[in-house]
Design a protein that fits this description.
Blueprint: H1 3-8, E1 34-40, H2 44-47, H3 51-61, E2 66-72, H4 76-85, E3 103-107, H5 114-123, E4 139-143, E5 159-161, H6 165-181, H7 186-194, E6 199-200, E7 210-211, E8 239-242, E9 244-245, H8 255-259, E10 264-265, H9 268-282, E11 286-290, H10 300-311, E12 317-319, H11 330-336, E13 345-349, H12 353-358, H13 365-377, E14 382-389, H14 396-412, E15 418-425, H15 442-455, E16 461-465, H16 468-478, H17 483-493, H18 507-516, H19 521-525, E17 539-540, H20 545-556, H21 574-578, E18 603-611, H22 620-633, E19 650-652, E20 661-671, H23 681-686, E21 692-700, E22 708-714, H24 723-732, E23 737-742, E24 745-750, E25 755-761, E26 766-772, H25 781-788, H26 793-796, E27 800-807
Parallel strand pairs: 1-2, 1-3, 3-4, 4-5, 7-17, 8-11, 11-12, 13-14, 14-15, 15-16, 20-27
Antiparallel strand pairs: 5-6, 9-10, 18-20, 18-21, 19-20, 22-26, 22-27, 23-24, 25-26
Helix pairs in contact: 3-6, 5-17, 6-7, 9-22, 10-11, 13-14, 14-15, 17-18
Length: 808
């Protein structure tokens, strides 16, 4: 990281988002002939939770002479700094601007991230519109579920990848590398890419029919094997392990259930090996088993039983984030609760069985109540219920049904458990049987939300709802044509960013853009006839139009369509288009014998470590997580707390502020690991991010708390001319009061009592500071610089602060 870019980190809310020094990150500089950057149009915390990014990162970096790096949408504070300083948005690994790459690949997971796509292109020095790009500008590609309607972004994206990317991304890069080295002009590069299967290039062949790419056997891609370990807390901070892909339940509102067909299950043995490898590579203590419907995995119960038998004594928890009501059984719950009780969300989707038939959600009220009863009886304190508002055929009695179900589930908990009712708005997505349906208006949704908020009233019932204005925009864009691109661009110019974040959305910008472009919202959200040509009709997800129309008609007749895995084929067309049928996993013997080892008695270790360089920008929480994962990976066995959510017993002696380096930090561990603790020092260091290093580990009798610290503060050239006088005046003073604001309260504090030594050496530009810790806390070096030396906050950021000693 250049010194100029590094200076930005002192002025942003979460510098850990931009460091790029994570364990398992790949840095390639020598013999690189093609540079690719994975661009995720949301924050680091969201993007690093996305399994697809980790898979593609590893696949691309496994190609010789090709470097793959990462970039995430900068938070508004970082964007302001980049624009103010005139810097370009950069990658994490080498800090190259986006315009310096050969190819920039966006992941389109959510329509409300589209303004972030445009913003990242603009900040990265790439012309936003594809027609304005020059010969040496990167090729901009995009994939993900939103690419199944490429029309709204077709003026900004050069190449769309339709379907699953593991195989096609390799074809794209090998072809791009070859035509680059052969000197093809930009237009001919795009022409060559358009000939690949599953690739849509708007400039070459607008509305050309493109059939999605399908990975026939997901066992050929047991990835990632070495995921990048995030530096900051991410949304899903755990191992994500895909056990199956696709779903044939046929929920008529569900786009993923249509575009990800057919079902392909990963072999049980492969899942077990992946779990073991990922635990060793990451140091996480939770595994999330991913699938559109995890309970439908053929061997879900024996798989969970094997994993828990293997890992429960190591306190590794299991999470199943996607379960249908009828597949959450008591045996599943009993195995999951062996370590800790991860949360459960049940999705009835609709309040009555009539409406559940319309949407082809076959579960019953009886099944929901039996499952809720089992969840509460097994010790879970709360449950979340997920419903959609505005579904086709919805009536007032369906809303009353939500109220009745919520109270019925609460009753199963006998008033001692909490029930959260989560309400989202139905959006009729492309490639679903409901793609011709209207989306209810903003006024209607707000009326429905108000009705339910009024009706669902109980101290143990909690109602949450998705922002209705976001749903309106989501529907507008997801059902849109090329004209929606102009709306997105106009909203971007008006300042729209992070529209999927309720605290960042400024809906008035979109309203203004809609008005200025004279867009009639009803043209996009209204009902459409079956014979109408849709903007996404040339994108073939494998499910044929006739099947979708028949399913739409069945919805009108309130008829269910059974799962084709357990009934006759419904001729949706996917198996023929993909060239395969559903693949179910087999159940081989466990891949490795479990050997029980008796744990030694619990002892206390003192770990002395340092944080230097970019690691100084890690927050205390981020540092704690990095240390915990490294200790796990090194084979240290923690002692754990008791209770509902057991935690490793780790005590950090102090919390050094962000931006301060330290040569003398301490933490204490309660461990059940035999042998000499010093033998773990180098093992742990292997698994720590750059700048963090363990210096010494020893066994101690008890945890000790520090009584003070010593710092060296190094000033850049041009320190205040009266610095010695200020220090002398402070040293002679009997007290020195400063005003602090803490949690909305103003606190007056005497900081003089905490300073035992303060001196300045003009020849080196160094100030030495020793402080003590008392009942009222201590004094931070930054306070001395602002309150005593008189520096502005921007000047403080240029002073290097190093803690050189912790006093016990």
């Amino acid at each position: 990281m250049s010194s100029e870019t590094e200076k930005l980190l002192s002025f942003v809310e979460k510098p850990g988002r931009y460091l790029g020094t994570e364990v398992n990150a790949v840095y390639k500089e020598k013999a690189v002939r093609f540079r690719f950057v994975l661009a995720f149009p949301d924050t680091y915390e969201v993007g690093m939770s996305h399994l697809g990014m980790h898979i593609l990162y590893e696949i691309i970096n496994n190609i010789p002479s090709v470097a793959c790096e990462r970039c995430f949408a900068p938070w508004p504070d970082m964007e302001r700094l980049l624009r103010k300083k005139g810097y370009k948005l950069f990658s994490l690994e080498t800090k190259r601007p986006l315009c310096a790459f050969d190819m920039v690949g966006f992941s389109l997971q959510y329509e409300l991230s589209y303004t972030n796509v445009l913003n990242m292109l603009d900040l990265g020095g790439i012309p936003v519109r594809r027609k304005e790009r020059r010969a040496d500008d990167p090729i901009v590609i995009a994939g993900g579920p939103c690419a199944f309607n490429p029309a709204p972004l077709s003026e900004f994206i050069d190449v769309f990848v339709i379907g699953e990317g593991e195989e096609v991304i390799q074809e794209i890069i090998h072809l791009s590398l070859r035509v680059k080295e052969q000197g093809y002009p930009r237009e001919e590069r795009l022409l060559a890419l358009s000939e690949l299967s599953g690739v849509y290039v708007p400039a070459v062949a607008p509305r050309k029919r493109v059939l999605k790419r399908v990975v026939k056997d997901i066992n050929n891609f047991c990835l990632p094997t070495k995921p990048v370990i995030p530096l900051t807390k991410i949304i899903h901070d755990r191992i994500s392990l895909e056990i199956a892909r696709g779903c044939t339940r046929g929920c008529r509102f569900c786009q993923a259930g249509m575009i990800l067909r057919p079902v392909r299950e990963r072999e049980v043995g492969a899942i077990e090996k992946m779990a073991e490898n990922l635990l060793l590579e990451t140091g996480y203590d939770e595994i999330s088993l991913l699938s559109l419907s995890a309970g439908d995995y053929t061997h879900i119960l024996p798989l969970i039983e094997r994993l828990m038998d293997r890992y429960s004594k190591r306190r590794i928890a299991l999470a199943l984030p996607s379960l249908r009501v009828e597949t959450l059984t008591k045996p599943l719950m009993e195995h999951i609760r062996r370590v800790r009780k991860t949360s459960f969300t049940l999705a009835p989707e609709a309040g009555t069985e009539r409406l559940r038939k319309i949407i082809n959600k076959g579960n019953t009220e009886r099944e929901l109540l039996e499952t809720a009863r089992c969840v509460f009886a097994s010790g879970w304190p709360s449950l979340k219920l997920y419903f959609m508002l505005g579904l086709p055929g919805e009536r007032e009695d369906d809303l009353e049904g939500i109220v009745a179900l919520a109270h019925a589930v609460l009753k199963e908990g006998k008033g001692r458990h909490g029930v959260t009712v989560s309400l989202s708005t139905f959006v009729p997505k492309p490639h679903t049987p409901f793609q011709w349906q209207r989306q209810v208006s903003l006024a209607e949704i707000e009326q429905k939300q108000a009705f339910l908020k009024k009706k669902i009233r109980h101290s143990h019932l909690f109602v949450k709802w998705h922002e209705a204005r976001m749903s309106l925009l989501e529907g507008l864009i997801s059902r849109g044509d090329e004209r929606m691109g102009e709306l997105i661009f106009h909203a971007f110019q008006l300042g729209a960013r992070f529209d999927g974040w309720s605290d960042q959305l400024v809906f008035e910008r979109w309203e203004r853009a809609i008005k200025e472009l004279s867009i009639n919202v009803d043209d996009y959200l209204g009902e459409r006839p079956f014979e109408e040509e849709l903007p996404w009709d040339h994108i073939d997800c494998g499910v044929n139009r006739e099947f979708l129309i028949e399913e739409a008609k069945k919805a009108q007749r309130e008829e269910l369509t059974p799962d084709c895995r357990f009934s006759d084929c419904h001729f949706c067309g996917v198996c023929k288009a993909a060239g395969l049928k559903t693949i179910e996993a087999s159940l081989p013997p466990p891949f490795e014998e479990i050997i029980e080892v008796e744990s030694p008695a619990e002892t206390v270790w003192q770990v002395r470590y340092e944080k230097r360089g970019l690691a100084r920008f890690l927050s205390h929480l981020e540092l704690m997580e990095a240390m915990k994962r490294a200790l796990n990976r090194a084979g240290v066995t923690f002692g754990y707390t008791q209770g509902f959510h057991p935690h490793p017993k780790i005590v950090f002696a102090s919390a050094t502020a962000v931006g301060i380096e330290s040569l003398d930090e301490y933490l204490f561990l309660y461990v059940k690991t035999g042998g000499q603790p010093s033998r773990f020092t180098e093992k742990i260091n292997i698994f720590l991010p750059d700048g963090l290093r363990v210096k010494e580990i020893r066994e101690v009798a008890r945890v000790s708390l520090p009584r003070g610290f010593t710092y060296i503060l190094t000033f850049p050239a041009g320190w205040p001319s009266d610095i010695e006088k200020r220090i002398a005046d402070f040293s002679r003073a009997s007290e020195f009061r400063v005003v602090r604001s803490h949690k909305g309260k103003t606190v007056v504090k005497d900081i003089r009592a905490f300073v035992s030594r303060l001196s300045f050496a003009r020849e080196t530009g160094e100030m030495k500071l020793s402080v003590s810790i008392g009942l009222q806390g201590t004094v931070r070096p930054q306070e001395l610089l602002t309150e005593v030396i008189g520096l502005a906050e921007e000047e403080v950021a240029r002073v290097r602060i190093v803690k050189i000693e912790t006093l016990f």
